[in-house]
Amino acid sequence: MYKINSAAVYIRLLKYSKKYYHYIVFAIVTTLLASSIDAGIAYYIAPFIDTLALKKDPSFIALLPLFIVIIFLARALISFASEYFMNLASNCIIMNIRQLLFNKILFLPAYVHDKKARSEIMAYIVNNVNQVSIAATKVMIKIIRDGALVLFLLVVMFSLSWKLTLVSIFITPAIIIVVKYTSKRLRKISFLTQNAVADMVSVISQSTSAYKLVCIFDTKDNEMNKFSDVNATIKKLSVKSQVSNSLSSAVVQLLIAAPISFGIILVTQDNSGVSLGGFTAILVIMSRILGPIKSLSKINAPLQAGIVAAHKIFELYDMDNEIDDGVYSTNEISGEIEFKNVNFTYNGINKILHNVSFHIKPGQTIAFVGSSGSGKTTLVNLLPRLYRVVDGEIKLDGHNINEYRLSNLRNQFTYVGQDSKIFRGTICDNIIYGCKEKPTYQEIEAAIIKSKCKDFIDDLPDGINTVIGDDGELLSGGQRQRLAIARAIIKDAPIVIFDEATSSLDTKSEIYIKQSIENTCKNKTVILIAHRLSTVVDADHIYVLDKGNIVEHGNHSELIAKKGHYASLYNIQDHT
User: Fold this and answer.
1) Where along the chain do its domains lie?
2) Which of 93, 210, 242, 445 has its CA at 20 to 30 Å from residue 376's CA atom?
């Protein structure tokens, strides 16, 4: 589970940064320049101390303050440029990967969305991308900055004392072994942490979105326990990560103590050939080199977290998009639909539809009824190719729907579901959602009137420009449904699907919705998925489904006369 080709993942990750290479290159150049200045300062400590302490050159002493100001001002400006361009590249990469990932999610097949929780997808875009950005930019620049500084300081040390430098180099393999072992452990912890974070987002999302249910069923303790468990897991993993990182850093620093001790012994010998300035420079370098080495030893945790996050993102990004291999397009659809011996199975496990065949003529209103799980919604999901039929055939105006270009096929349908989705924004934004061209005010007004929305929209403070919150929180269920119908009217597609559009509404709201549906359905092919049979009595033809099979069909009167499944369902509802 945790075996990831880190090099391959990181190289691929850098490819997503190529649009911003000019920022990264400039950051790297300025970083190297800043490191070289630091090394230069260390190098000139020896002659500075010797000149100041031994020769006491008055001209040198006079120019020294100005020289120091210039050097540190230059270093500050260069460091600022390095940080600025690396942060700019980091934010550009975050924006780029988030956009690519969001675009990808929209093109994934429906079954992927069925399997992945909304919170998991949110974690991909928010949490994982942040970690990827850190690994792609900030970690890389730290490796370059601290690595270059260590290298430059070692060069300076070598020029001052080759013996001490060799001792420092000899401990490098031991440091590499420590870092390699820690990398493997941190990668595993990071993998588990990211899964736990996704679980936490899921608990938060579900608990807050179902807040009323939690209150009414008095399950706050349950939800708190769920959150407590996943919160404790994240804490435990975080502690493990910090302990591993701290131990690694401590061992590395302990290994560094060897050359420091040797250096102190070396410079105190009379025959070492090191001046007072050289002695001071070596001590400064030895203390200065600890910082970047310590930083490099700690870089592993965010690097491994970023690699795991990138691996998870690439797994999602590499999934196949929904199939769109059709080539046929048309703007003239009459609305004739035919199912021929259609069988359908979700994920090859549960067979939902069994040899379903029927024919819908243009302009007809057709209803599908049956108990929950009978296959009604699955049947209409196949029409716009949310799921692809591989056994049997569905035709639209005589053409197999698999022959249509996907966008062209879906332009022929409009849809109103049981739980109509309302998007964040205004009433107007939601009505015109999906329109390729912005409708006129008259068209919007006509849709509002036909959908019976005018009465409640006129009561809102800003009319159609009223902001209605996430998922239409300021509207009732019936008002949201009527708004969804207005959206369907504006699209003006030849085929209209109503999927349980009145099942969760009160009687008054149901009457409004039925009137709205009648206004929407003129000269359209209409498909009604209904649990309440009172909404389908006027349909031209009714199909009764049971366990994925069409067991009866006919109009309302004919089905009542048969005294079968439909009559039984109707009588039960009529007396309840």
Assistant:
1) 6-317, 337-574
2) 210
